[in-house]
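Hello forum,

I keep getting stuck at the same step: I have a sequence, I want structure tokens, and every attempt I make locally crashes halfway through. Rather than fight my setup again tonight, could one of you with a working pipeline run this one for me? It's a single chain of 159 residues.
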Amino acid sequence: MDDPVAITNWRRIDARLTTSGQPDEAQLAAIRALGVEHVVNLALHEHPRALPDERAAVTALGMAYHHIPVDFDAPTEADFAKFCAVLAEAGDRPLHVHCIVNARVTAFVTRYFREVQGMADAREQARLDSVWRPGGVWAQFLGDEESVGEPHRYAGRDY
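Reply #2:
Ran it on my machine without issues. Output:
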């Protein structure tokens, strides 16, 4: 099956890991058809674009659901630790991570590959840049001190 690239900011990281913005229920089924066994949601359930009961939709498809509600204005080290724990728990099993537009996720995945996997290369930065260029608290979260005073810059449009 082909990747469901119609999902906002869909990205295939590798054979195991995919990321995106908020999928709808049909798109969750397409993600399951790829063999994904775990869905991680970093967005808040209260967001207007969030599914009414994502946990039920995901578990009905036979996937595990992990919710790590990351406040967009205040990502924390505890959030990142939970994220790393979920990725470790999933092991080699296919995993999909999403938020609303894939901004939170690209920051978390970039930091994960850099700090946990020791893979600080240009591909991770390019993937991040293809969605957005974080400023403020997100630049600080990523250790990008030069951009802390800058606004977020989104690739193509302001979400």
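Residues 11-145 form a domain with the Protein-Tyrosine Phosphatase; Chain A fold (CATH 3.90.190.10). If your local run keeps crashing, start a new thread with the error log.
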